[in-house]
Amino acid sequence: MRVDHFDFELPTDRIALRPARPRDSARMLVVDGRSPVVDRSVRDLPSALRAGDVLIFNDTRVIPAQLEGRRGQARLGVTLHKRLDLRRWQAFVRNGRRLRAGETIAFGNDVAVLAEERHPDGSWTLAFAGDEPVELLLERAGTMPLPPYIAARRTPDEADRTDYQTMFASRDGAVAAPTAALHFTPELLASLEAAGIARELLTLHVGAGTFLPVKADDTNDHVMHAEWGRIDAATAERLNKARQDGGRLICVGTTSLRLLESACDEAGTIQPFEGDTAIFITPGYRFRGVDGLMTNFHLPRSTLFMLVSALMGLERMQAAYAHAIASDYRFYSYGDASLLIP
């Protein structure tokens, strides 16, 4: 499909620079395939679902993956993208056109990386020097990797270290938050449990590629970056049983959805999964394991707006987004939510 089919005008003042407080006070647009859109709150989620449904969360934890350094006198920005092994990461390098393999980028006085290899997409393999665990080096030298549409308008600060982390975050490795889950609080989870709505966890380490613009004119020409994910056998078994018993699987965030669909076989059975996925979901895709999605509002022409259009239909989502814009919903990572039930 042509990428310009997924374009729309978004006023810049609709981009949220801070999250709602408390988190579950955010607005939620309910888009049901059979009914008009309904304006609700995230706190209404228990009544918007039904007993037996399962919410599926991503338990990845965002690391301080944004680094500012120098190669000689040149200033470079580094955004880690995907871990390759204990000391090596694939990364995007800003102002790195003159960077050459074998050169070192220094971040302060005691953190440095060696540029090993440049890839066709412009990213680099970077190896952290020394023996100290990379996680400790990042805590000293890195900052939270806020999305570019926020970072361009304000500087990341100490509040982002907690704001840009979900309450489920337990497995280090993401360089972007699974932002739909930012809306959840212990009080909301208690209400969901009282309503008979279960929850499950899986892991997808979100990469910086999630923010890359689609530069191709046709979706067939766009290449997704791979991300590592895992669903263990016990979780897959519980999800399959919940569905067999009549429950719906509602993914919280596009990251959970993409991993679940990657793990599904042709019959719609969720299999244990561990490895990379570069799944790209556009209209015409046949969903096999997902019955609904809770997600934030996405960028024009983005792979994520293409995904929600595949789930609900392009015209339906264009109308829903037009309603959200006219009704002053807050967009993107720190913005409001939508609940999509095809």
TrEMBL record:
Q: Where in the cell is it found?
A: Cytoplasm
UniProt keyword annotations, A-Z? Cytoplasm, Glycosyltransferase, Queuosine biosynthesis, S-adenosyl-L-methionine, Transferase
Q: Which Pfam families does this UniProt record tie to the protein?
A: Queuosine_synth
Swiss-Prot/TrEMBL catalytic activity: 7-aminomethyl-7-carbaguanosine(34) in tRNA + S-adenosyl-L-methionine = epoxyqueuosine(34) in tRNA + adenine + L-methionine + 2 H(+)
EC main class here is: transferase
Q: In which pathway does it act?
A: tRNA modification; tRNA-queuosine biosynthesis
Keyword Transferase: yes or no? yes
Give the EC number(s) listed in the UniProt record.
2.4.99.17
Q: Which GO terms describe its molecular function?
A: S-adenosylmethionine:tRNA ribosyltransferase-isomerase activity
Q: What residue ranges are annotated as transmembrane?
A: none
What is the purpose of this protein?
A: Transfers and isomerizes the ribose moiety from AdoMet to the 7-aminomethyl group of 7-deazaguanine (preQ1-tRNA) to give epoxyqueuosine (oQ-tRNA).
The record's listing under PANTHER family reads: S-ADENOSYLMETHIONINE:TRNA RIBOSYLTRANSFERASE-ISOMERASE
Q: How does it assemble?
A: Monomer.
- Family note: Belongs to the QueA family.
- NCBIfam families assigned to the protein according to its UniProt record, in alphabetical order: PRK00147.1, queA
Protein name listed in UniProt: S-adenosylmethionine:tRNA ribosyltransferase-isomerase
